[in-house]
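User: Structure please.
Assistant: Input sequence and predicted structure:
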Amino acid sequence: MERKQHSPGEIAMILQELSDGLSVEEVTRKHGISRATLYRWRKRAKASGDKEIRRLKQVDEENARLKHLLAEAALEIQALKEKLKEYGWPKSGGRD
């Protein structure tokens, strides 16, 4: 049997057909691939999906941490501005 190279888009389309309800036999016959190839692709797609979920969770945690730091910095800046106003700064009337 001739060996073919399938693009990631084609593999995704084939796996989508499988998840849409076509049987394994129909998908393998239609695209001329073996059952082992189909199962290998499905396993690889699931593993990469799990990695993507973990990566997105890490990004969300990092975003939450950075938002918290930004909020703290904004509060500190506001408090410092209020304290400076108490001391009459900036002085009106131009440069000293």
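The chain has a mean pLDDT of 89.
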